[in-house]
Structure formats: C-alpha cells, structure tokens
Amino acid sequence: MGALFTVDNLVSLIDAEMNESFDLGLAQFFSELNINLPKQIEKLEYEMMRYVYEKTQSRSKIQIITGLSRHKIHKFIQNYRINQALERQNPKQKVFTLFITELKELAEKLPNKEIPILGKKDSFNAIFDASAFQNGMITAKTMMESLEKSGCIVIKEKSIRFLSALAKKGVNNPPDLIRQFSDVIYRMSCTQLHNKELENNDKTLYQMTVRSTSIPPEKHLEVTQKIREELRECSKKIIEILEEHEAPTAEERQKIDALNLELGVTQFLFNNERGDT
To answer: Are the beta carbons of 256 and 247 closer than 8 angstroms?
Structure first.
C-alpha cells in the first residue's frame, strides 16, 4: 500500500501542503447544507476503515493506518459484515444497470429512440414489470420521473424518448447536491491516486484546470454561456465514445458491472461568485 499514514500524519500533511481553500470549501458546503459534522466524521472514519480492510483484510493495518481505537475497529468489522450480507441480498445498483441497459437496447431499435409507455411487450412498463424493481417499493411512474430528472429520458404524452444512460442534469436540492459533491470528490481522488502510482505518462488519466482572475464580473455570464456550450458539445462526443465501447449484450454488461469499475469524465464550470448574488 506504500507509505503508511496515521490520522496525525495526515493532519500534518494537510497543514503543510494544503492551503485554506480546502478547509473553506468543505466548511462552506457543509454549513450551507446543514450537514451534521460529527455524523460526517463518523462516516469518514467508517469509509477509511472499509478502504483499508478491503485492501488488506487486516485489523492491525486499520489501526496502524487510521490511528483509530480498537473499539471502533471492532464495531466497524461487525457493521461491515452485516452491510455486506445486506448488499448480497439486495443488489439495487445491478438491477438498475440492467434496467437502463434494456431500455437503451429497445430504444435503439425504435424510430427516434421513442419507447411506448404502455404495452405488454416492447414498452417502458413491460421492461419495468419484468425487472426486480417490481417489489411494491417503487412504481413505474416514479421510476420514469426519476429517469427524466436525471436526464436519461424525456417523457412525452404516450411515450418516452431515451437520451442516454450516462446523461446528468444539474441539481439544486440538498440531497442531490450532497450526492454530486461526494461523487466528484471520490472520482477526483481516484484520478489522483491512479496517476500517482504510474510511471508511464501514457497511462495517466487526464486532468486539467483552466481559470482566469482577470475577467470583469459583468462579463461572467457571457463567458459562462460560451463555455457551457463548448462543454455540451464535448460531452456529446464523450458519451458516444463510452457507449460505442460498451459490451454489446446485457448479459456481458451485467458481468462487467459486477466488477464495479468506472471509466468516464466529470466536467464542471466553477465560479466562486455565488449564484444568488
């Protein structure tokens, strides 16, 4: 695993190498969304222990690397085993992946990728009824609205138009903001750790930040709109590349999905001028 870091060493590293923008960014986000800090720290400790345990299968390594008490580690092991058992019984993500894959395959056979909502065969409801979502906890209508909100489909009067399994819209409610923030932090971490461990630059993941501090505030909106359009065009090409190289059948994709490996791009414009000012 390379060099071992205790919590104290990590704090020292942060103090020495990171500027206040790291702390400010987290403090601002947590405060604005009323996130309970003690609970968040508990979750961070759990995820640190989970990461080390899954990589080493060693209780002693957890204590060495995280610096947490034996009592917390013992409690973590108990909860971890319970959570693993529950995940095996209820693999929601795999079910969703298979569901969205079947929608995509049907859409590609139909004109304009439009799928009828009703019907015993080749319809949204038919695919939903055959899926493991049919458990009384979620309805076809709820699933349809959720997919539209995420940017995967557009709902019409008697049909839905499939856009992409990868499309995402902007979010503005606290639960979605927290989820998106978490995903960005996780993927950023994956990229930097991936690049850190490689000596061959050809295999490193691309990352770049381009910014300016010299644009007058009254031009921010104009510049934002121009960059947004460029990013949209770029996103379309990226989605095409990803979908072009996916495994051709639902069965193959399900096996690959079980590996829990992601490959993709996260894009976002940033501006530290608040949107409500």
So the answer is: yes
Question: What SS3 state is found at 161?
Answer: strand
Reported pTM: 0.51
Q: Are 130 and 124 in contact (CB under 8 A)?
A: no
**223 falls in which pLDDT band (50, 70, 90)?**
very high
Res. 115 pLDDT band, cuts 50 70 90: very high
H-state helical runs in 90-173: 92-109, 124-130, 140-149
Q: State what percent of residues in the chain have pLDDT above 90.
A: 12
Q: How far apart are CA 253 and CA 243, in angstroms?
A: 12
The answer for residues whose C-beta is within 8 angstroms of residue 161's C-beta and 6 or more apart is: 107, 112, 113, 114, 115, 153, 154
